[in-house]
């Protein structure tokens, strides 16, 4: 029953890479960053495609509190087209299309902002980059194969990408999901 709560769960797929290199067989759930745009361009059956990167432990702070967070995703603008999480506040249409935007779960919003509405407020990641809270969604159900407390705009990675992975077909770094 995992992930069946998504509106189009029967049409959501994850790309995997199976290959052989130097005689070793490998199977990876991670793909190159250009995979999602290529799926959209080359296959008319693909309605939407999204890339996800699980962040390492990040320091997240507001004006008074600071926490180490492990449950953060980077996702591109199609994330909420593929996955149907319940929105509490904000506009899902444009939520992840602009660099330095962030969407919080209900629990994360309460942790950092209490009873105040977090939309329009700022969180600082790793004591250097400010992100505007643009939305709040319900907490991710426990019967999900990936969970998170925050989703950061994948577009932010273009500014943060120092190694060129975002344009490379040789780097297996991102999870790619698509909706048929």
Your description of this structure?
The strands form 2 sheets. Strands 1, 4, 5, 6, 7, 8, 9, 10, 11, 12 and 13 form an 11-stranded mixed sheet that branches. The protein has a two-stranded antiparallel ribbon with strand order 2-3. The chain is globular and about 55 Å long. It has 180 residues and is of the alpha+beta class. The longest helix has 8 residues, at 35-42. It has helices at residues 35-42, 79-82, 106-113, 155-160; strands at 12-14, 17-21, 24-28, 48-54, 58-61, 66-69, 72-75, 87-90, 101-105, 122-125, 129-137, 150-153, 175-179.
Helices, strands, pairings?
Layout: E1 12-14, E2 17-21, E3 24-28, H1 35-42, E4 48-54, E5 58-61, E6 66-69, E7 72-75, H2 79-82, E8 87-90, E9 101-105, H3 106-113, E10 122-125, E11 129-137, E12 150-153, H4 155-160, E13 175-179
Key features?
single chain, 180 residues, alpha+beta, 11-stranded mixed sheet, two-stranded antiparallel sheet, 4 helices, 13 strands, 14% helix
Task: Tell me roughly what share of residues is in helical segments.
Answer: 10-25%
Shape: globular
Query: Which class of secondary structure composition applies to the elements?
Result: alpha+beta
DSSP summary: helix tally: 4
Q: What percent of residues are in strands?
A: 35-45%
Number of strands: 13
Segments where pLDDT lies below 50 for 5+ residues? none
The gyration radius over C-alpha positions equals 17 Å
Average pLDDT works out at: 90
* Order of helix and strand elements from N to C terminus: EEEHEEEEHEEHEEEHE
């Amino acid at each position: 029953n995992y992930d069946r709560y998504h509106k189009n769960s029967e049409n959501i797929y994850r790309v995997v890479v199976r290959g052989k290199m130097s005689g070793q067989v490998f199977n990876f759930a991670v793909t190159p960053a250009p995979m999602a745009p290529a799926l959209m361009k080359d296959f008319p059956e693909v309605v939407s495609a999204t890339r996800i990167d699980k962040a390492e432990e990040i320091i997240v702070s507001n004006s008074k509190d600071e926490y180490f967070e492990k449950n953060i995703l980077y996702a591109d603008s199609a994330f909420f087209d593929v996955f149907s999480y319940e929105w509490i506040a904000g506009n899902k249409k444009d939520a992840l299309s602009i660099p330095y935007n962030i969407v919080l779960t209900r629990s994360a919003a309460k942790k950092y902002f209490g009873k105040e509405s977090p939309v329009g407020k700022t969180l600082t990641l790793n004591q250097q980059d400010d992100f505007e809270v643009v939305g709040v969604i319900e907490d991710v159900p426990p019967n999900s194969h990936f969970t998170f407390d925050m989703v950061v705009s994948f577009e932010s990675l273009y500014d943060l990408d120092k190694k060129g992975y975002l344009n490379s077909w040789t780097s297996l770094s991102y999870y790619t999901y698509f909706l048929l």
